[in-house]
Amino acid sequence: MLASIMAGSVITVRDIDPGDKSWVRREAEHHGISMEEYVRRLIREKRKTSEGHQKPSAAFRRYFGTEHGIELPLPRSHGYRPVTFSEDDEK
Questions:
Q1: Residues whose CB is less than 8 angstroms from the CB of residue 24 and which lie 6 or more positions away in sequence, other chains included
Q2: Quick one: average pLDDT of 11-21?
Q3: What is the Cα–Cα distance from 72 to 62, expressed in whole angstroms?
Q4: Which of 9, 38, 43, 68 lies in disulfide reach of 28, CB 3.0 to 4.6 Å?
Q5: Are the beta carbons of 5 and 11 closer than 8 angstroms?
Q6: With bands split at pLDDT 50, 70 and 90, how would you rate the model's confidence at 4?
Q7: Which secondary-structure segment (H or E) carries 2?
């Protein structure tokens, strides 16, 4: 899907799946609004639901992950080290 921004807040979407486009059209007609307004509301709803529910590690990974040139440490379990009895421990 290719999107380009034109004239400030207008977005043109090209190469959209015909099934998706007809679904958006039906839903917009069901609610009595234009397709553009329906998409705006979908975006607003998605932003609202995704803003406060992100883990700090996910936010860090999103802005500083490997695609931005930073290697993140591997996730570790937080707990006690297992006790081992071997000859190497005695030295």
A1: 35, 38, 39
A2: 86
A3: 11
A4: 38
A5: yes
A6: very low
A7: strand 2-6
